[in-house]
Amino acid sequence: MSEVNGPRGSAGRSGPPGRSGSISRSGPSGPSGAPSVGSWTRFVTARPRLALLAALVITALAVFAGSGVADRMRGGGWQAPDAESSYATEVLEREFPASQPNLLLLVDSGTASVDDPAVAAEAARITERLAGEQGISGVTSYWQTKAPGLRAEDGREAIIAARVGGDETAAGRTLERIAPAFAGESGPVTVSVGGPVAVQHEMQEIIQEDLLRAELIALPVTLVLLVMVFGSAVAAMLPLLVGIVAILGTNAVLRGLTEFTDVSVFAMNLTTALGLGLAIDYALFIVRRFREELDTGADPRTAVGTTLRTAGRTVLFSALTVAVSLSAMLVFPQYFLRSFAYAGIAVVLLAAAAALILLPAALMLLGPRVNALDLRRLLRRRKKGAAAAEAPLKEPGRAWARFGGLVMRRAPVFAIVTAVGLVLLGLPFLGVKFGTADDRQLPVGAESRVVQEHIRDGFPGSPGGGLAMLVEGGGTPAAYEALKGRIEQVPGVQRVDGPVTGDSAAYFSVLPEGEAVGEETQQLVRDLRAIPADSLDTSVTGTAAVLVDSKDAIADRLPWAIGIIVVVTLLLVFLLTGSVLIPIQAVALNALSLTAMFGAVVWVFQDGNLSGVLAFTSTGDIETTLPVLMFCVAFGLSMDYGVFLLSRIKEEYDRTGDHEGSITFGLARTGGLITAAAVILAVVMVAIGTSRVTNTKMLGLGIALAVLMDAMVVRSLLVPAVMKLTGRATWWAPKPLRAFHQKFGLSEGESAPVGPGTKGGPSGPGAPAADGEIPEAGTRDGEKVTAGA
């Protein structure tokens, strides 16, 4: 191993030798003595202007390609497409459009009765107009059928129902065209537009508006926080630019995907949150390491090369772990979940690409000017001398080192108290109840929600909770009558209407006694599906049936999703650390970091605590797919921070073989960085959480809580405490796996064996430093630990 102890400006670090001897970075060197770099690094350092120009052109194309992406997204996606309820719904829509109305016109007659001749005449005229609209089928009304379920109990309101054809995008456009012509006063009545198609369309519009507001909140706040972290306004702008590039690129990817598959509009929220959050994480790590290299006297080209070989390698590795966590959602059939996988994978990889190509090119051109416009000088103006000017930067690093030492001295206490506290915070999740999204996701006062509330509260039966049993197989009137009798005998059935027969099928309408998606109605769905139908083929659909099928689909695929995340995470962390125990710790502690999020989701959003403060309506349950989505996203982000910490610990352990000193060093070098990154990402997620749509609010606030708990509790307390308790066994691996890691493993540090007086290789357990002492906390080979970015 070569030693590099040159003056400032040389490729290596300078300073007094550390306790384990003068250890330098090692690796192959080019003709000038600077470490060689990979082909992409050579391109960035040799042609930074060309790299920036290429990035600018690609970003401009992405802006063009991604324009109008939100208009092509859909508002649903919670239903499993291969489920029995989906099949029955599709057949009923085709054969009996009136059986599946998705557009409801609520006709309010004021003080008159809906049976008043003038009201009836106007309602008949509106019904006829609606039936004549293109894209509308299956129009029916109370005045045509006199069905009691279409008339309010007070006799002042009644319903005109219809089916808007086409997919969600086409149905939304039809609604936009006809709603203005029907909503409002019309003679003696007032008409309001509702129904599932109106709810979904209004939800989509609100999400787009809220997303724009979230971006307007998050961007300036993020910029202020970045200036506080970096000090330099120039350095603070770089992560923001990387995030914008990642978001614009992901919009283009999603726009392309809408040509081939359904994509949920909710995925736009994840694109913004992860685009800004991860880009800032990666840029913080890259810029921090670059400035660190400049501080040792390295020239910009050498600093960029070293940064990409170390921090750049960690960023790429981190992006893979996050992408794997998000890719697990691809195993689920619901396109709501798959959409988040599309958006998440795209934005993670684009954020990493921008951080590893665009950002190094900018740093190459900026050089020391990356520290320009240091706004913190205003706060230090009264302090004299260079030492005083540097003190605020170094103090946080020493504080984290001292804090790490305190945690390890009391490791059993911190480990037990923290773990028990996290478990207690997660206990409310044991009482979780799963449901389906409805109009109450919308803010109070939204027109489609008002219509649905009038129907839910003022009409008889269980509006929106009815079930339909599709019957195929050429039944006879006698067979239908026998089947109807068996349906009426099922517990929980209030009324059975039908059969309504067509050319090749028939259906029964079943009104349940219980709530629309309550446990009793869900059991009724299972009981109806178990009814013997002789030679007839039956299938059940309805809101409760969709929920039952969605829960079954998630339960069937969830073990596969968790298995993918766990197995790949174990493999990736092993490749990073060469340890058998650390990957297991990483998975267990990551899962533990999510308990507060899941407990809060149930306590707040299901049970309704803080509903007044957060301005939402509790439905008494949680939408079935949300916990899966939040787990995958939060687990990936937790691994992101875990990789940052473990990579620095591993780098120092490879260099010194000092277990406790490596933990202290890693915490000192990344504690402030991870905390800053978590706070910034939490700000972005909280901005998303200001949405007026409950599911989006839950997603944003829940992940913000998970990120903060992971960075400030798990990474700061639990990880160092557990690693202290496991001691040198932390780094153990059997000989075959050590050999595998030495051949294929990855790490942030360049290939540097442990220092003199140690035994074992970089992947094996090392011995104490040469003189048997732990290096002073907050130092590295005599160099003071600096903090901040």
From TrEMBL:
<keyword id="KW-0812">Transmembrane</keyword>
<feature type="transmembrane region" description="Helical">
    <location>
        <begin position="560"/>
        <end position="582"/>
    </location>
</feature>
<feature type="region of interest" description="Disordered">
    <location>
        <begin position="748"/>
        <end position="789"/>
    </location>
</feature>
<feature type="transmembrane region" description="Helical">
    <location>
        <begin position="411"/>
        <end position="430"/>
    </location>
</feature>
<feature type="transmembrane region" description="Helical">
    <location>
        <begin position="700"/>
        <end position="718"/>
    </location>
</feature>
<feature type="transmembrane region" description="Helical">
    <location>
        <begin position="342"/>
        <end position="367"/>
    </location>
</feature>
<feature type="compositionally biased region" description="Basic and acidic residues">
    <location>
        <begin position="778"/>
        <end position="789"/>
    </location>
</feature>
<dbReference type="InterPro" id="IPR050545">
    <property type="entry name" value="Mycobact_MmpL"/>
</dbReference>
<comment type="similarity">
    <text>Belongs to the resistance-nodulation-cell division (RND) (TC 2.A.6) family. MmpL subfamily.</text>
</comment>
<feature type="transmembrane region" description="Helical">
    <location>
        <begin position="315"/>
        <end position="336"/>
    </location>
</feature>
<feature type="transmembrane region" description="Helical">
    <location>
        <begin position="266"/>
        <end position="287"/>
    </location>
</feature>
<feature type="transmembrane region" description="Helical">
    <location>
        <begin position="667"/>
        <end position="688"/>
    </location>
</feature>
<feature type="domain" description="Membrane transport protein MMPL">
    <location>
        <begin position="504"/>
        <end position="735"/>
    </location>
</feature>
<feature type="transmembrane region" description="Helical">
    <location>
        <begin position="587"/>
        <end position="606"/>
    </location>
</feature>
<feature type="transmembrane region" description="Helical">
    <location>
        <begin position="50"/>
        <end position="70"/>
    </location>
</feature>
<keyword id="KW-0472">Membrane</keyword>
<feature type="transmembrane region" description="Helical">
    <location>
        <begin position="216"/>
        <end position="246"/>
    </location>
</feature>
<keyword id="KW-1003">Cell membrane</keyword>
<feature type="domain" description="Membrane transport protein MMPL">
    <location>
        <begin position="79"/>
        <end position="410"/>
    </location>
</feature>
<dbReference type="InterPro" id="IPR004869">
    <property type="entry name" value="MMPL_dom"/>
</dbReference>
<dbReference type="Pfam" id="PF03176">
    <property type="entry name" value="MMPL"/>
</dbReference>
<feature type="region of interest" description="Disordered">
    <location>
        <begin position="1"/>
        <end position="38"/>
    </location>
</feature>
<keyword id="KW-1133">Transmembrane helix</keyword>
<feature type="transmembrane region" description="Helical">
    <location>
        <begin position="626"/>
        <end position="646"/>
    </location>
</feature>
<protein>
    <submittedName>
        <fullName>MMPL family transporter</fullName>
    </submittedName>
</protein>
